[in-house]
Amino acid sequence: MSLIDTDWTFSPVLNRTPDAMGEVYGVVVHIMDGSFDGTKSWFNNSGASASSHFGTRKDGYAEQWVDTKDKAWAQMAGNADYISVENEGVAGDSLTDGQISRVAEVLAWTHRTYGVPLQLANAPGERGLGWHGMGGIQWGGHFDCPGDHIRAQFNEIISRASGNVSPAPQPVVTFPPFPGEYLKLQNPMLHDENVHAWQQEMKDRGWSIVADGWFGMASQHVATQFQAEKGLKADGIVGPLTWNATWTSPVT
Q1: 8 Å CB contact between 88 and 32
Q2: What is the C-alpha separation between 70 and 242, in angstroms, rounded?
Q3: Distance (Å, whole) CA 29 – CA 198
Q4: Three-state secondary structure call for residue 246
Q5: Which residue of 76, 87, 104, 242 shows the fewest CB atoms closer than 10 Å?
Q6: How far is CA 84 from CA 34, 115, 225, 242, in A?
Q7: Which residues contact 63 (CB under 8 A, 6 or more apart)?
């Protein structure tokens, strides 16, 4: 599911792009620079062009505003790759104890759901717990968001998130880890052992595909069909979610 599986209230806001999330790299922390209610009202203003997946109040109350399959409008060029959390407060604040726990819940949930590692992220494209300012101009130029005091609390957030993650059971099926290379149609055509390994597994699952190591239009077509079948974003690109599903999802 793409709604967080805790006691968060789901109170959807107007501003969002449906079904537009890509690979989820991590969680990005923001400061509202205002009140919880005022920020939520702004996210329901069609002229605001702003929103966030989640919001926390200083007393620890929290809401989910945007489904994580939908793109929130929180950090511009980073919107499709990161789950966003807005926190009540102003520049220079620290998060309250309740807010720290709530952000930790989001991070733990993305770890369970999307495989986001429980680690710090300090630049776009890195996986883990990140911050708005790390995206620079491309993320809106909010260099001081959420501020040094909150960034100093990130290790505590990660520690609490680790406590919310149950020990992983012994895997029944072993499979090669995602190689870090996105398999996709490109020019020149991609040809390597990672493509061959993915094609061979798809062939073994019963898909009509030649395991020749070349990622061409036929491979893109099979990838798109497989993603649609498994409820993934059907873009024909084999990223971490599609790679893992190739070996772990039920054969239908």
Answers
A1: yes
A2: 18
A3: 35
A4: helix
A5: 76
A6: 17, 16, 29, 23
A7: 8, 9, 10, 11, 40, 54, 55
